Protein: Phosphate regulon sensor protein PhoR
Organism: Rhizobium helianthi
Amino acid sequence: YVARIKPIPSMDGEQRLYALSFRDISDLRSMDRMRSDFVANASHELRTPLASLRGFIETLMGPAKSDLAAHERFLGIMLDQATRMSRLVDDLLSLSRLELKSHIAPDQRVDLVPLIGHVRDSLSPLADELGVEIFMHLPEGKVEVIGDRDELVQVVENLIENACKYGQEGKTVDVHLKRDETDTVEFSVVDRGPGIPAEHVPRLTERFYRVSVADSRSKKGTGLGLAIVKHILTRHRARLIVKSELGKGTTFTVRF
Ligand code: ADP
């Protein structure tokens, strides 16, 4: 609390009354704390690949100067680290752009059918690389929602990409879209991967949160994807529902 004392002027000019007020600033404090936690996390995530890049550059300039085989190997690792840093910076920029836009409501009429089709096409090289087959279950005709096209592309892309990355054991991913009688639009992505332990599910949309089971840590990612998805869906007044069963798979549903 912040306390303030203010003199209240009286009619006869003598100072006798004071007003004491208390203002609850816990919300402001916790926002401040969240912001500085975020900056600390982001700096840490960027520092790790930077430190590793520096180490490799020093080795290439020193002990491994004339070792051509080491050059090739180290340069490959350095490229991976640089790619990881670019991905992080892109995600951080996406989040900060979304924060700047938070007071503007998305207002485009977006047909999700072609949008999902395009995203699927753009992800097919990744799906091929991971050996995953994506099955589409889209209705005939249009399924329109009011939203921001680019942001909705990000949501669809993130969820299908995650299903391919983390659900690959089952090798198939199903993408569904439907509108029901009450005009509710549902988009869902079903994978047949190892699933997510229940205690992690509520935290998936936290920034930098990654589940450290099995080999999920070894998969490329920033831990910001679902935080971005959540942010976008909140702006769209849409909900993200996660259902996961260990050993069976995970379904991410977006309900507009
Ligand atoms: P990233 O994929 O960059 O790590 P996300 O925010 O997209 O970050 O996802 C956070 C974490 O949630 C992932 O690291 C992964 O552990 C878990 N996750 C996301 N989608 C799935 C899925 N379909 N199956 C299993 N785990 C998942």
